[in-house]
Amino acid sequence: MGKISKAQIKAVQKYEKANYDKTTLRMPKGKLDELREAADRESLSINGYIMAAVDLALSGGSASRPSILTEAAEETAKEAATAAGVPLADWLTGAIERAAVIEAEGRRLTRELAAFQVKGKE
């Protein structure tokens, strides 16, 4: 890779000044390592991880990780969580737990039906 010229550096600085806000983030010793590890787990840069968390938090979601829901599903979930008076993350956790219970009950009923059908053929 060739040497970066002063003109290139100046052009990047001009672009960044026109398109980005900057801030300094201070955190307790060791927290940066935790942040770096969390970003790595999500295959994001530290800045990307922080921006995803900020965007999600500002939209009313949890700041712990980026959303895996489609926009429509997330909007529906937000409406349901608001109607239930609970945080979105809590509502989603409950919905997943309820779906797992329903799925398990469906498997149990399918086994019972199969056993009943076998008995009926005897």
Pick out its properties.
122 residues; mainly alpha; elongated
Query: If you average the pLDDT, what whole number results?
Result: 86
Q: Determine Rg (CA atoms, Å).
A: 25 Å
Number of strands: 0
The major beta sheet can be summarized as:
none
Please characterize this protein's 3D structure:
This protein is mostly helical and 122 residues long. Among the domains are: 27-66, no CATH class; 84-122. It has helices spanning 6-19, 31-41, 46-58, 71-84, 88-121. The longest helix has 34 residues, at 88-121. The radius of gyration is 25 Å and the shape is elongated.
Q: Can you give me a brief rundown of this structure?
A:
The chain has 122 residues and is mostly helical. It is built from five helices and no strands.
Topology:
Elements: H1 6-19, H2 31-41, H3 46-58, H4 71-84, H5 88-121
